[in-house]
Automatic annotation (TrEMBL):
Bilayer-spanning residue ranges: 89-113, 125-147, 159-179, 185-204, 270-288, 309-333, 353-373, 380-398, 404-425, 437-455, 475-493
Predominant cellular place of this UniProt entry's protein: membrane
GO MF entry, a single one: lipid-linked peptidoglycan transporter activity
Identification of the protein by name: Probable lipid II flippase MurJ
Keyword Endoplasmic reticulum attributed: no
Similarity-based family: Belongs to the MurJ/MviN family.
GO biological process, alphabetically ordered: cell wall organization; lipid translocation; peptidoglycan biosynthetic process; regulation of cell shape
Pathway given in the UniProt record: Cell wall biogenesis; peptidoglycan biosynthesis
Length: 518
């Protein structure tokens, strides 16, 4: 599991880094204003479907069914099922896309009801360009599920890197060749869908497991898939739906607020996407196998170790982001049209998002405990409850707290969500915190707090005017603080005997020696 976890995490990290570069270019050329708001609205719908299908509901429903069919009935039957699923998926998504293109103004009124005038007109035009990406990325998610179901995580994870590579090229082309960054970037989204689907299909074809389009039909297997997938759209995608509510509420705030929330969320998505996606993707097939074998002890162990791995990196990420949020935003985005005030305000939103980082990731870790046994009904009930809670909290907080209200509401709702998931799994006898995880979690939290205190002290006494530094100097200053914090954290872990530095060093030396000898 750890190898698959690291494989998915490494490719996802590369994708997030490229995504960060892409967002920096957006900040430079569009800033935080009406046009950026409109473009980000156009990006929101297809991205939500990508995360729901690629990282959530479809993967949760399809992978266990495909894996079970492959093991019990063989490759031919499994690929026939995959082809039927692909055909049904593409057919109804094409219909949905045609309807969306026709009624796009009404859709924008729903997802951004505060938009008027220029923001509304641009949002409609740009979303019409990006919406077909939904069909392509959902088809790609199915092919990715086939690869993941056979334990081929690398190819599926690598394909998603192309989204940001093409996005970067599209932004630069729009800025310097066509002088219309927003439109060019929107076309880049849709073009990347063709490239991702093509790359995944090629990888599956090379392995002899590529599904083929057939005449759509509602077979017994497809009906079972739809029953599992439908509720899971909310159950596994509740984080994304909460963020969508944030966007709807943010559209009521002054122009630029949706952009501030977007850039804050993108930084928060670096650890969230890497750890949450990696844990959920690698854990689901493993839990499915344990549950099929009625091995409850292994289910307990797998969930505890997955939580251990994620907390080891999530808690310091949370503390680091809270400690340095405005400075990180300034170091990464304070260029071109993105001002110092934008960095400060967006940093405040980031702090509210970062506070909920452990909860956001633990939702992705605990949800496979339900999906692996075919239970998508329970997560959907929890999802509806927390969605309602998030909406209520948003309405209560967005006026007094402005740009901090929506992310804080999502954070509070996420903690409630993960608490309910954990309690139900515990009552079913599928999860309980073992003594090892309890002790290590407290030590990891202590090390993370110590790291944060040292970072704040170093910034206050050594770099009191860091926010006013310029360009590369500011970036180096922030990276120095992050590196210093990382060093403090590693030393603290070593002293608390969570991870021994000499053991890690010895393991790396053995790995290098094996590669040289091989």
């Amino acid at each position: 599991m750890l190898r698959n976890f690291l494989t998915v995490g490494s490719w996802t990290m590369l994708s997030r880094v490229l995504g960060l570069i892409r967002d920096q270019l957006l900040a430079i050329f569009l800033g935080a204003g009406p046009l950026q708001d409109a473009y980000l609205t156009a990006l929101r719908l297809p991205n939500m479907f990508r995360r729901l299908f690629g990282e959530g509901a479809f993967n949760a429903a399809f992978v266990p069914m495909f894996t079970a069919k492959y093991e019990k009935e063989g490759q031919a039957a499994a690929l026939q099922f995959a082809g039927q699923a692909l055909s049904a998926l593409v057919a109804w998504l094409v219909v949905l896309t045609v309807l969306a293109e026709i009624f796009m103004p009404s859709i924008i009124h729903v997802i951004a009801w505060g938009y008027t005038g220029f923001r509304f007109t641009e949002a409609v035009a740009l979303t019409r360009i990006t919406f077909p990406y939904m069909v392509l990325i959902c088809a790609a998610a199915l092919v990715s599920g086939v690869l993941n179901g056979r334990g081929k995580f690398g190819a599926a994870s690598a394909a998603y890197v192309t989204f940001n590579i093409i996005g970067i090229v599209a932004i630069l082309a729009g800025a310097y060749l066509w002088h219309n960054t927003a439109v060019s970037s929107a076309w880049g989204v849709t073009i990347s869908g063709f490239v991702q689907l093509g790359a995944l299909y090629w990888a599956a074809h090379r392995l002899g497991i590529a599904p083929h389009l057939v005449r759509p039909s509602f077979s017994k297997d497809i009906k079972a898939l739809l029953r599992r997938m439908g509720p899971g759209l909310v159950g596994s995608g509740v984080t994304q739906l909460n963020l969508t509510i944030d966007g709807i509420i943010a559209s009521q705030l002054p122009a630029g607020a949706p952009s501030l929330l977007y850039f804050a969320d993108r930084i928060n998505q670096l650890p969230l996407g890497v750890l949450g996606s990696a844990a959920g993707t690698a854990l689901l097939p493993l839990l499915t196998k344990h549950i099929a074998n009625n091995d409850r002890e292994s289910v307990h162990t797998s969930l505890n170790r997955a939580i251990d791995y994620t907390l080891l990196l999530t808690l310091p990420a949370m503390m680091g982001l809270i400690s340095l949020a405005p400075y990180i935003m300034a170091a990464l985005f304070r260029f071109g049209h993105f001002t110092t005030e934008d960095a400060i305000l967006s940093g405040q939103s980031l702090q509210a998002y970062a506070l909920g980082l452990p909860a956001f990731i633990l939702i992705k870790v605990l949800s496979p405990g339900f999906f692996a046994s075919g239970d998508t009904a329970t997560p959907v009930r929890i999802g509806f409850f927390t969605l309602g809670l998030n909406l209520v909290l948003n309405l209560l907080l967005y006026r007094p707290l402005a740009h901090i209200g929506p992310p804080l509401a999502s954070t509070l709702a996420a903690f409630v969500n993960v608490g309910i998931l954990a309690i139900i799994l515990h009552r079913r006898g599928m999860f309980s915190l073992d003594p090892k995880l309890r002790n290590r979690s407290l030590c990891i939290l202590g090390a993370s707090l110590l790291m944060a205190l040292w970072i704040v002290a170093a910034r206050k006494f050594l770099m009191p005017n860091l926010l006013m530094w310029h360009g590369l100097e500011r970036f180096i200053g922030v990276m120095s603080l992050i590196s210093f914090g990382g060093l403090v954290y590693v030393i603290a872990l070593d002293r608390l005997k969570i991870i021994k530095i000499r053991d890690v060093k010895a393991a790396l030396q053995r790995r290098i020696a094996r590669k040289r000898s091989g």
